[in-house]
Specification:
The structure is a homodimer of 589-residue chains. The first copy, chain A, has 589 residues and is α/β, with parallel strands linked by helices. Helix content of chain A is 38%, strand content 16%.
Chain lengths: 589, 589
């Protein structure tokens, strides 16, 4: 294999054109096999193999600095920069993260996993170079899908006036995760259709020198253009047309489904579209929405470019028609847009991932909460997890619940969730966020008739004494287990409470607990810092009631298994009971 | 006066062209007098008088919906929509807010004060209309300065594909608060120079129909174009060239200084540039920076378009030269850019207002904290205040201090602040944010030799017993007053502590306090929710130590005087002492 000879980017520079092409084929086989085994980003990596080879052939990394956007297209880069064993050796398949990671290699500049950051980061790298009068190339590689994020557009506007070397490679595969959205894509399309020759050019309007490569999967062509722009003394855009999933027919034909794949997807090619037979929180949500939308034309779903996460299949989107808006990667716009819809009497449902709701704090605060628009926001994948550091779902409660006016709800089962959805959509008083339960569907079998307009009214599930357990959202089941363990191990008949509201305190209930409880424990599936439990602790601060907050620490964990985190944070039933025992013993003293 | 006859936009439609022009002159006089009396946004309002008259002449507000960006240019609109007495009658000068406010009038759609939101909001208004198959015009008025914010660019990209009526008026006065920054402005400039005829057009690249009005301060010309685009069935951009400060020579000549003015500014025209003779936190910061930057070319200041807030005068900026970057209104870019600078060995100082740091949570989390770049971020104007609801400085602690890795410092005086600045700039381990004290300069006279790399190490200022007072940042003085009052009124010799670190708990110190204290109180200048004190309460939760957290409630207050807020939140020395007394009495029971 040619790949045997390639351990660093320098080794590439010794290869002939034929060898480079053979290398690309070898890398494609390696990536297909690896990703089909472990799961991971598929289409983006297959599309960028040739361009990555060309980049490393022309530039001199790590002296020249390559900044990846999202970095879900960095597998070829990792293979070429000393980490090929993570793709060749099945035993090492999990050695490297799926994103750029400076701790792995000096060829990786930043730890990234959110989109639209590369242009600003590359500007900073270039400016640091300029301050010291050093000379090297700074290259940003950004996909067309990432280009519509506000951070990318702010970066592009600033990059244009940097006044020194910066090479922005726009990897245009005419796809975001799903279809692209917005006016910029009309221009990218025009540029593709005119072989880059159209007079009206989004990039040149901003002042960039512009180059177009029609066959971005042709190594020679890419090298030819990159050689031209190398060592430029001003900002340049290289518009690279590539094919997402290049070289794998089924991925080329089904770009959305093959953006990210589960292990074994290729082994069962006919069945790649996610089977939606098992009822889960996604399926009950989409069913609810379709029913509602059919009856009420004011119902509208908004999603910033992550339909797959929510089970918003192409069929679902088609059924909703003009009652579905994909904003593209544009979370800020999505929130402000949805807030305005709500303010005008529409009934918007904004579906967004926890990790990406982080991109829109000020819009939640100013456009939404300050205007008190009755938006329904569904927050998906909230909770502690073994995810990459870039995609943790543990920060949303501290982010959302400290903004005034927003009612943030934590349902614990199907019936409660659907009742909250129904209530939220029909009320007009509050911006409402619902933390969609993360995990298998819990069915209580009892229809929920709670009036959720009694804001901050907690539910007492079982009245006991001495110890009260507040089990929030995903941790309702854990709370029940703890109650049972307290009974069996310590003989305590604890009170079990479902707090329902992440964003507020039921002062009356908490006050009443004082009469026959000495300890209140809170369980929340996220970081404690700024979250739910601390508010309960603060409430009881001046009193004699003790409080223990159980939840995650304020830290970025990186692919740490959940079991390990649960041990670390004392979130197993056993450790919780032990902490309760210790606190009660101290009380007696 | 013509203005006497105008109480609603309908009244305008009866006026002749001459009368409209006279009306503009009258409104200009009224606004100049009012703003020179109360202070407020000056240049933006003078520049938009004619266009506002034209908008209300052509469109039918509030059936047609006008969405203002930032809305610091809404004074003429307020005058024409039933609120002229707030500008004519000095006794009513403070009746209306300086921003659009739906509670004041149906002609105001949203409560806004942050930039770059109008396009997304207008898209939502238009889409709600389309869902119901209604017909009316939706107009967004956005300044060129606001156009570079990520939210605006996301909105523009989505607006282009709305597929129905939307009229975006770009008020191009060739100024942000200070100079404009970025590539988009090169195109706006080209369009102005070519009377809107240049082939290469930023707006048409995105698919917008485009109209140019060269004299945007000419009512007839603006009416002529708006009549053309009225009732359009697709998105349109009207590029309107206006003069900031139009009709007031000194404001036209000094656009930056006259963006917002203090009361009486016009009465002393020669002296409009802010005198910087008195030493304050701004002046010691700029002096520190100039000294540092002269010695070290890696030092660089980044600011997203608010130089005046920080005392970054044109002279200061000129002295720094390439060591100063104004990113324009682009807070997300500013954070990512600064983080990358820090990661590459530069020493960036990012200056930003509390209210606008809200625009960049995800960049603080992902681009900065996750990468642990040693940025120094100076956060200005943090604290409870009588400000407009849109410009509160009370949310930053809950926003910043719950993100892992960021060290958020709260200096209490000049010496401490400068020592923190020095430490932060020279260390390479942590992203550091410093909450620049808000208020008059406190000088201790004792040079600060603290090693701030002992993260979360609090300072015990005076050791006492029974009660410990943790007075954070701006509230250090208040903590001292409380200590004295506890002594004189209750005979308690309390321990006085400066926590220094907003973002963490000194567990060792707090543990030690248990031995001879029964109550710990925390004082913080911001909302309690998600803030500092709750973490202390959570720490002591399982113990017998009582805690009272003093700080603001989670709410948007709108021009509520600080004295009122202090009473409401029990933040006067008297109320604090009383709460302490109550808690101690309960202890005895």
């Amino acid at each position: 294999m040619i790949l045997d000879k390639v351990n660093t980017p320098d080794d590439l520079k010794q290869l002939s054109s034929d060898e480079l092409n053979t290398l690309a084929d070898e890398m494609r086989d390696v990536i297909i096999k690896k990703v089909n085994t472990t799961g991971g980003h598929f289409g983006p990596n297959l599309g960028i193999i040739e361009a990555t080879i060309a980049m490393h052939y022309v530039f001199n990394s790590p002296v020249d600095k390559i900044v990846f956007d999202v970095s879900h297209q960095c597998y070829p880069h990792k293979i070429l920069t000393g980490r090929k064993e993570g793709f060749l050796n099945p035993e090492k398949y999990l050695t490297y993260t799926g994103y750029t990671a400076p701790e792995e290699s000096p060829h990786d500049l930043f730890k990234v996993g959110h989109t639209s950051t590369s242009l600003s980061l590359a500007c900073g790298v270039a400016k640091a170079r300029d301050l010291r009068d050093e000379k090297y190339n700074v290259i940003a590689l950004i996909g067309d899908g990432s280009l519509t994020g506000g951070e990318a557009l702010e970066g592009l506007n600033n990059a244009a006036v940097l006044g020194s070397n910066l090479i922005i490679i726009v990897n245009d595969n005419n796809m975001s995760i799903a279809e692209n959205q917005g006016g910029i894509y009309a221009n990218l399309s025009l540029l593709r259709d005119t072989n880059g020759k159209a007079e009206n050019n989004f990039f040149t309007t901003m002042g960039f020198e512009y180059h177009y490569i029609n066959d971005g999967n042709n190594i020679e062509k890419v090298i030819e253009t990159l050689e031209k722009v190398k060592d430029t003394d001003h900002p340049v855009v290289v518009h690279l047309r590539t094919v997402k999933g290049h070289g794998c027919a089924v991925a080329e034909a089904n770009k959305e489904a093959f953006h990210w794949i589960l292990p074994g997807t290729l082994d069962d090619k006919c069945n790649y579209s996610p089977a939606n037979e098992i009822e889960d929180y996604n399926s009950i949500t989409t069913k609810f929405i379709l029913d509602k939308a059919a009856k009420d034309k004011n119902v509208i779903v908004i999603n910033p470019a992550t339909p797959g996460v929510h089970g918003f299949t192409p069929e679902f989107r088609a059924k909703l028609g003009k009652q579905y808006v994909d904003t593209g990667i544009a979370e800020e716009h999505a929130v402000a847009f949805s807030s305005a819809l709500a303010s005008q009497g529409a009934k918007p449902i904004l579906a967004i991932m926890t990790s990406f709701v982080q991109r829109t704090y000020d819009q939640l605060s100013q456009d939404l909460a300050l205007n008190n628009s009755p938006l329904t926001m569904l927050v998906y994948w909230g909770g502690l997890s073994g995810a990459d550091a870039t995609h943790l779902g543990s920060f949303d409660m501290s982010l959302i619940s400290n903004i005034p006016n927003i009612v943030y709800l934590a349902p614990t089962n199907k019936e409660e969730y659907l009742a909250m959805l129904e209530w939220s959509l029909e009320q007009t008083e509050h911006p409402v966020a619902i933390r969609v339960p993360f995990g298998p569907l819990e069915v209580s079998g009892i229809s929920d008739t709670t009036d959720y307009s009694n804001i901050n009214k907690y539910k007492v599930l079982e009245k006991g004494e001495k110890v009260a357990i507040l089990g929030l959202g995903n941790f309702a089941g854990k709370a029940k287990e703890v109650k049972e363990a307290l009974k069996s191990r310590l003989g305590i008949n604890a009170t079990l409470i479902n707090p329902v509201y992440i964003s507020g305190i039921d002062k009356e209930l908490l006050e009443n607990l004082k009469t026959d409880h000495e300890l209140v424990i809170t369980l929340e599936d996220g970081i404690l810092s700024g979250g739910f439990g601390e508010k309960v602790a603060s409430f009881y601060g001046p009193s004699g009631i003790k409080v223990i907050n159980f939840g995650g620490e304020k830290e970025f964990t990186d692919r740490v298994p959940l079991e390990v985190l649960y041990e670390r944070y004392h979130l197993t039933t056993d450790l919780i009971v032990r902490d309760v025992e210790t606190a009660l013993q101290t009380s007696v003293k």
